[in-house]
């Protein structure tokens, strides 16, 4: 789905929908209260958020995979596989699986480390550990109580924060911030902006790790582009292009995880041609274009840069790496 515009600001509609938001919130509380999480034999790091999509979880997961690999560990990624049809547990093979099978995020993660898709997170963690992983990075799943987390990082987009502050469907929140922040070990704040104020004084009780998304090169600076994206918050991508110095001749936003067919791509090409602009998209969208992105579509790659990487490393030092555990 694509986030409704009213999720970004308060108003009459969010207030009318707030009883449904309360029901959604209470259902989540009850689900977590009744669950008995399974403890994996290796540490599990959860990269989650409090809003529906668009915070930047996957770049954080990719960064952590690289950091752990640099420390000599053998991390594996675990994801539900949103947008894909496979239930799993299934190890993702980029050359054999496509986004329709395992989802776009799983394909990005699989380029960096062994990656497992599993709607049953506990079963996925068990499969990853059995295959040799000594630490698991779970992309999303903070609200899923089936698997015990050893470290939970909540990702917050500094520009968006918690939106209008209401729970789904009245707003973008998956749960009330007070409960989610109480279960978090740290907040990863990506970028700056008005969304920072939503955290209030949380830094007094939960560490805030600041980071930013940066492009891997400046090839689009000064270029005229037509941008398209099907991610949680397409406007975030469009603003990144502006910040890079690209001239946006036009944009088109799609629903998160939406697949692209040949008819849609041809229509986008015609629009770009009409504006005499280069066609540009995100790396997450690119994996939905086929095994290889068409050469006439430029893919903007971004990486996560930590303001204080040592603070993150101190959090990781708490984890029981290379320690065998019995099933909990």
UniProtKB/TrEMBL annotation:
It is an enzyme of class 2 (transferase). It comes from Pelagibius litoralis. The gene is lpxK. It comes from the Bacteria. GO terms for cellular component: plasma membrane. SUPFAM superfamilies: P-loop containing nucleoside triphosphate hydrolases (SSF52540). ATP binds at residues 51-58. It catalyses: a lipid A disaccharide + ATP = a lipid IVA + ADP + H(+). Pathway: Glycolipid biosynthesis; lipid IV(A) biosynthesis; lipid IV(A) from (3R)-3-hydroxytetradecanoyl-[acyl-carrier-protein] and UDP-N-acetyl-alpha-D-glucosamine: step 6/6. Transfers the gamma-phosphate of ATP to the 4'-position of a tetraacyldisaccharide 1-phosphate intermediate (termed DS-1-P) to form tetraacyldisaccharide 1,4'-bis-phosphate (lipid IVA). Keywords: ATP-binding, Kinase, Lipid A biosynthesis, Lipid biosynthesis, Lipid metabolism, Nucleotide-binding, Transferase. One of its GO terms (molecular function) is lipid-A 4'-kinase activity. Its EC number is 2.7.1.130. Belongs to the LpxK family. This is Tetraacyldisaccharide 4'-kinase. Pfam families: LpxK. InterPro entries: LpxK, P-loop_NTPase. GO terms for biological process: lipid A biosynthetic process; lipopolysaccharide core region biosynthetic process.
């Amino acid at each position: 789905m694509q986030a409704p515009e009213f999720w970004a600001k308060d108003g009459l509609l969010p207030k009318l929908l707030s009883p449904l938001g309360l029901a959604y919130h209470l259902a989540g509380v009850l689900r977590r209260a009744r669950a008995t999480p399974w403890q994996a034999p290796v540490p599990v790091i959860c990269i989650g958020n409090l809003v529906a999509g668009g915070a930047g979880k996957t770049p954080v997961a990719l960064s952590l995979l690289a950091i752990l690999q640099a420390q000599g560990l053998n991390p594996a990624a675990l994801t539900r596989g949103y947008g894909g049809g496979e239930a799993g547990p299934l190890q993702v093979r980029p050359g054999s699986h496509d986004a329709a099978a395992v989802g776009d995020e799983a394909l990005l993660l699989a380029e960096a480390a062994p990656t497992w898709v599993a709607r049953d997170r506990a079963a996925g963690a068990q499969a990853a550990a059995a295959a040799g992983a000594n630490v698991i990075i779970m992309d999303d799943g903070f609200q899923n109580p089936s698997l015990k987390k050893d470290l939970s990082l909540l990702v917050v987009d500094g520009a968006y924060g918690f939106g209008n502050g209401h729970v789904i469907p009245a707003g973008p929140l998956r749960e009330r911030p007070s409960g989610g922040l109480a279960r978090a070990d740290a907040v990863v704040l990506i970028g700056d902006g008005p969304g920072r104020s939503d955290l209030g004084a949380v830094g007094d009780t939960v560490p805030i790790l600041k980071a930013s998304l940066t492009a891997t090169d400046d090839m689009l600076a000064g270029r005229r582009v037509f941008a398209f994206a099907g991610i949680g918050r397409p406007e975030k991508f469009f603003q990144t292009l502006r910040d890079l110095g690209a001239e946006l001749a036009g944009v088109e936003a799609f629903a998160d995880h939406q697949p692209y067919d040949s008819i849609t791509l041809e229509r986008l090409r015609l629009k770009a041609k009409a504006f005499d602009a280069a066609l540009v998209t995100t790396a997450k969208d690119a994996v939905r274009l086929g095994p290889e992105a068409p050469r006439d579509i430029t893919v903007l790659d971004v990486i996560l840069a930590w303001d204080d990487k040592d603070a993150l490393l101190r959090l990781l030092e708490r984890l029981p790496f290379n320690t065998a555990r019995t099933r909990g």
